[in-house]
Amino acid sequence: MNRVFLRQLSSLAQPLAKAGQGKYLVPNTPRYKKLMEKQAIFTRDDGLLVWQKLSTDKATYATVVALVTVGVLWSAYCLAKFASPPKNQ
């Protein structure tokens, strides 16, 4: 009795799908096709890093690097300004 119960809980209790037959329907919409094209671009073995694959990723990366540089320089300026004593007039 226990063995039958455990077998029903097993992931292999139901037979696996045959080769070539999917268990779920695959969408056939333009959005899904576009997603699959992007996935093919990102999984292509062309020696590029992920952030180098698309031109929009390159622009985003350059913007983030520029903003981080500005933030670090601004922080250094503020720390230097706060660390120096005020001038007497």
TrEMBL record:
Its main location: mitochondrion. Keywords: Membrane, Mitochondrion, Mitochondrion inner membrane, Transmembrane, Transmembrane helix. GO terms for biological process: mitochondrial electron transport, cytochrome c to oxygen. It is found in: Mitochondrion inner membrane. Gene3D superfamilies: Cytochrome c oxidase, subunit VIIa. InterPro entries: COX7a, Cyt_c_oxidase_su7a_sf. One of its GO terms (cellular component) is respiratory chain complex IV. The chain crosses the membrane at residues 59-80. Belongs to the cytochrome c oxidase VIIa family. This is Uncharacterized protein. The lineage of its organism: Eukaryota, Metazoa, Spiralia, Lophotrochozoa, Mollusca.
